[in-house]
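Friendly challenge for the regulars: who can give me the structure tokens for this chain first? No prize, just bragging rights.
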Amino acid sequence: MLDNPDFAGVAEPMCIASIRVTDPGGVESAARSALRIPGPILLGVLTRPDEIAVPPKPTVEQDRGFVVAEMQGVRGHREENGN
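First reply, four minutes later:
Bragging rights claimed.
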């Protein structure tokens, strides 16, 4: 898992406005606020590291990759827990 910095906190010393969103319910409000700020802005949105990003129209090959990845995750979880 990647350990990402607070990108919004990194942007501020560079005089780039930033908004950091930690709650999914705040994304829309933060995006609206960001659009009202003139100039560049960094909108940092934290996501769950185990969340799977699914494209709008997944291909069969992408579906296959998803299934393989999930099966490897299940297998690894079982091995960690001695099952």
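The helical segments are 7-11, 27-36, 60-80. The chain has a mean pLDDT of 81. Your move, everyone else.
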